[in-house]
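*** Backbone structure tokens ***
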Amino acid sequence: MTTHQTAPTRFAEVDGTAYAYRRFGAAGGTPLLMLQHFRGNLDNWDPALTDALAADREIILVDYPGVSSSTGQPAHTVAETARQIIAFTDALGLTQVDLLGFSLGGFVAQDIALVRPHLVRRLILAGTGPKGAPGMHGWRQDIADHARADEPGGEDLLYIFFAHTETSQAKGVEFLGRFLQRDQDRDAPSSLAARDAQYDAVLEWGVPDHAALQRLTGIRSPTLILQGDDDLMIPTKASHLMAGLIPDARIRIYPDAAHAFLFQYPGEVAKDIAAFLA
């Protein structure tokens, strides 16, 4: 069976833009489309998470236009990114997906669920927050410095993604070993232009706007909100805010974890997602 490590990179053409994607897992049923974090590409997912999810369903990973192996121009707003991903689903002939958005991908997933509601059967928002909420207008300086480094390395990922405890950092080191395992057909790193465009999108999404929070009441897909208990990048309280505003939402908070709790607890997170999707 094809796995995270062996799935070939394919390309879907939309209006002259080639979207790089990988598709693997158990065919049949509703596929799970996974949208990546700031600067993330196909190889930045944890294979321990994606392979566990792929045991029961088909998984689709994709690079946004202008990011890593996808061609085209990177979007400077979340709304534009959402339209790009909707065009990608149209190109693959997908009439319904389950949608998982992590971090920036969670911003995009919220917009997709609002502007193309019939596309999203179930919605999973991981390590993310709502448009206009308090504490969402960019990142604190130390996090921004590590996240926006010209050539981020393992130390940067450990700092922004994992809690600053011995136990969480040790799990982070294990994750670094897993996500670097693929040695064939690795995705290209994302460019500095993509970094800057995506940070524009992060900042625009986070401009304080109390009225924008009411958008969440329009999400009709059953929603699962997942978060670490001490996210240094997107405040954990933002997940509780989303859970209170999205009509059919449930929330799960993981202990001793920060932004990348889903790479710290890949087995548990996969089980929680599988139970929700079933």
